[in-house]
Structures are given as structure tokens and as C-alpha cells.
Specification:
Rossmann fold, 4-stranded parallel beta sheet, 3-stranded antiparallel beta sheet, 15 helices
């Protein structure tokens, strides 16, 4: 009995010393989450693995935020969900097909006959894409983030016109209140929201970067600021609060860094001598090769013969035909890398300047309109260096890093959930709120077969 008494006393003593967790009650603070809308592009839409699909949308950043906002009076968040998880992606190589499925990991045999685990995507015919192009107008949609929508697109009624099913951006047409007449901005303003989740400017820069600096240029910082002023001014005119994110560095993403500029590797001196002889004889002595790593050959109108070798500080996009580089000397022997796959030093400078100036504009407008600011530029730098989440190491390494999806640019669902928490931290700080962070057990990372 004496031993039992001693044990009971020790248990009682230990239990009395156990600290109680002082968890704050969820609170909206100075914000009103009774009606939240989202405006932006790919990241807020939930685009991942190169496509928009149902589960990705259901676990998008705004959808995850809305679930937490329910704890402080937020309502159900309406989205125009895709009919299934096959989804619909816009193909960067439209000469192959207009649309593609989300990428998935599978065994793929390359041109050298080597089979390995690689991202695989399939093309979708225009007729098969019809279910994913269905007009959702009339539904209650609060997620007005549209993949690839630039800030001028928010003011353009033609952006929602889709009589041609091969419209390069089919996503706004699905949710436009009056396709061909309405604009994304007006559709958003008519919602009369009390809270705005915004991430604008990404597509204005990254649509350009992803195409190797070809196509439409990046709007000036002045133009971007004017558009942003109109949008934020209109959406907060009734006193709405909100949160806005800035723009990360493109170098964080394997889409721009995985294919090394100097990966033209020559292992035999005969290869080196042959290439140097051919290019010198052809009047292109600036193309010079050596044993080991060499820069690929790219187009450059300012160089002799319109060609030169790529150098450090320039980048090759992941959309480049890698099999052609491996087996058919693409970018090495009389077939230069197409400009759409390359960011040269001039384009890199333009992108860097745009990111810096856009971020300055975003910070100024966040202050002007009393919005919480999410510093995603710093956060993505941190993820690139490596973070630990729930005991797991995560970074931006392609496939294995745990944060990005299989397109090398958009996060996977776990990555999106961590970004959602950065939004919550900024909201809590700005508005004296106590919104619990997201812990998403159903969010997928990269799925291995």
C-alpha cells in the first residue's frame, strides 16, 4: 500500500506540472471574412502539374484559406471546379496539341533506350476538351483567379470570348458572367466582397519568361501600377480588407534551371576537333568547343552569323525538347536552340528589373489600400534553400524536393498549403486576427507509382 501511495503521489505531482497549451480562440480581428473573393492567376487558381484539375482547385490557396475563415464566420467558397481530376492544361507547344492532361510520374523510355521514372503528360484533342470548356456562368464563383491571366486581361471583355474552342485561354470563359462582354474586374467588383485575396503581376512576367522572352512583352511598372490601382481601388471601395502577395525570383524554379546552360558535354577529343573545324570553316569561329562541358549554341541576331554559345547567367527552359538534345545534337551541331527555349542575358535583366519594380509597386499599393502583404519573394528563396515541414525536409528540387509539382514551376498541393499559411501569418499580423494555420492531411505531394 505504501508503494501504491508513493506512485500515486508521483503521478499526481507530474500531472500537476504539465503545462497547459494556451491556444488563442479563432478571431477575425479587424477583418471581415463574411465574403472573400480571390483575384490572380495560376497560383491562386490551383494550377499544378501543368494543368487545372478538380482536386488541385479544391485545395487551392483561396480554398484552403476559406476553410480557415469559416472558423471566424466565413461562408462556403464557390469555385468553378473541373469535372474530374484529368483536368485541362494549355500546351506550351501548340503545334503538337492545344491541350494536355496533368503530368504524372511513370516509366518513360528516352531516345537512348533508357527507361526511367519521369513526368508524363498526354495530349487532349479539342473535341475531348469540350467538357472542360463548359460555360459555368451563373454559378456563384468567388475564385476569380484565372490561369495565365495578365493584369490587362482583367479589363478586357474579349478575354472571355470563346466561340473558338482553341482559345489560348479557355479558363475565364467558363466563369464569365457574360462571355465577350463582361470583364474579370467587373465580375470581381460586382461580388461586393468584404475580403480580397490577391496575387497579381505573376503572369505578366512569367508568361513572358516561360516562352523564353518571346511573344508579348512585360508591361511597364507604370502600366502595372495603374491597372493594380484601378483593381484594388474598385475592390476595396466599400471598405474591404485584403491580402496581396509579391513576386518570387525565377531562379528558384527548376523550369528555368534544371537544364544547365553548359550541359553540352564532349568526352572525346575527336568530337571537339571535328566541331571546331566545321564551325571555323563555316565562318563561325566564335563557336568554340573543348573537352568536358560547353555552352549550347543559340540564336542571337547581334552575333556573327546570328548564332553564339549560351553562357553563365543565361537559362534554358524545361520546355526544350530534351531527347533532341541528347540524341540529335540539338543545340550543338548546326541546329541552334530556338529562342523560345532560352532566356538570354538581356531578357534575364528585363525579368529581374520587372520583378523588382513590380514588387515595389505591390508594396506601395498594399500600404495605400491597407492590405496585408505576403513576401513570397523572400519565402520562395527560403524554400529554395530548404525548409522543414512536419519533420520532413522540403526544397525546390525537381520531383524529389517535395514542394513543387511535376511542371517545375507550380507548387503541388502540399506546397500550396504552406503558401496558404504564409498568407495567414500576414493576415494575422496586419489585422490582429487569430486565424489557425492550415494542416492539410489530404493535400498531395508528388505521387510515385
Amino acid at each position: 500500500m505504501k508503494h501504491i501511495f508513493v506512485i500515486s503521489f508521483i503521478v499526481l505531482l507530474l500531472s500537476s506540472c504539465t503545462p497547459e497549451l494556451d491556444m488563442p480562440e479563432p478571431s477575425a480581428g479587424d477583418a471581415d471574412f463574411s465574403k472573400m473573393i480571390a483575384v490572380g492567376g495560376n497560383y491562386l487558381a490551383g494550377y499544378q502539374d501543368g494543368a487545372l484539375y478538380r482536386k488541385g482547385q479544391s485545395l487551392s490557396i483561396p480554398a484552403l484559406l476559406a476553410e480557415q475563415f469559416k472558423l471566424v464566420g466565413g461562408p462556403t467558397f464557390g469555385q468553378a471546379l473541373m469535372p474530374d481530376n484529368n483536368g485541362l492544361g494549355v500546351n506550351s507547344k501548340i503545334w503538337e496539341s492545344w491541350f494536355i492532361t496533368p503530368s504524372h510520374l511513370g516509366n518513360k523510355t528516352n531516345c537512348q533506350g533508357i527507361t526511367s521514372l519521369s513526368p508524363i503528360k498526354n495530349t487532349i484533342s479539342v473535341s475531348s476538351a469540350t467538357p472542360y470548356l463548359t460555360d459555368m456562368a451563373g454559378n456563384s464563383v468567388q475564385n476569380l483567379a484565372v490561369p495565365f491571366a495578365t493584369i490587362p486581361d482583367y479589363m478586357n471583355p474579349a478575354f472571355g470570348y470563346s466561340s473558338n474552342p482553341t482559345n489560348l485561354n479557355p479558363y475565364y470563359a467558363r466563369i464569365a458572367s457574360n462571355p465577350g462582354v463582361s470583364t474579370l474586374y467587373e465580375d470581381a467588383r460586382q461580388q461586393n466582397a468584404t475580403f480580397i485575396t490577391a496575387w497579381l503581376g505573376m503572369e505578366d512576367i512569367y508568361n513572358y519568361a516561360a516562352r523564353g522572352g518571346t511573344g508579348a512583352g512585360i508591361p511597364s511598372a507604370t502600366s502595372f501600377g495603374n491597372y493594380l490601382d484601378t483593381i484594388l481601388g474598385g475592390l476595396t471601395a466599400n471598405g474591404a480588407k485584403g491580402v496581396i502577395a509579391n513576386i518570387p525570383d525565377f531562379r528558384n524554379y527548376p523550369y528555368y534551371t534544371l537544364v544547365a546552360w553548359d550541359n553540352a558535354v564532349l568526352v572525346r577529343q575527336t568530337q571537339v576537333d571535328s566541331l571546331n573545324d566545321i564551325y571555323t570553316t563555316s565562318g563561325l569561329p566564335q563557336l568554340y568547343f573543348q573537352l568536358g562541358r560547353n555552352g549550347f549554341v543559340i540564336d542571337d541576331a547581334a552575333s556573327l552569323g546570328g548564332v553564339r554559345q549560351i553562357h553563365a547567367g543565361e537559362y534554358i527552359t524545361l520546355s526544350v525538347p530534351i531527347d533532341s538534345m541528347k540524341c540529335y545534337k540539338y543545340g550543338l551541331f548546326f541546329e541552334t536552340l530556338n529562342d523560345r527555349y532560352v532566356l538570354d542575358s538581356t531578357e534575364v535583366y528585363e525579368i529581374d528589373q520587372a520583378i523588382n519594380s513590380y514588387n515595389a509597386v505591390i508594396a506601395q499599393k498594399a500600404s495605400q489600400y491597407n492590405l496585408a502583404l505576403v513576401d513570397m519573394h523572400s519565402y520562395m528563396n527560403t524554400v529554395f534553400s530548404g525548409i522543414k515541414w512536419n519533420g520532413v525536409d522540403m526544397n525546390m528540387i525537381f520531383v524529389s524536393g517535395g514542394f513543387l509539382s511535376l511542371d517545375g514551376y507550380h507548387p503541388n498541393q502540399k506546397g500550396y498549403s504552406l503558401i496558404a499559411n504564409e498568407f495567414i501569418k500576414a493576415i494575422n499580423t496586419k489585422y490582429n486576427a487569430s486565424i489557425p494555420e492550415v494542416y492539410c492531411t489530404e493535400c498531395d505531394g508528388v505521387k510515385f507509382p
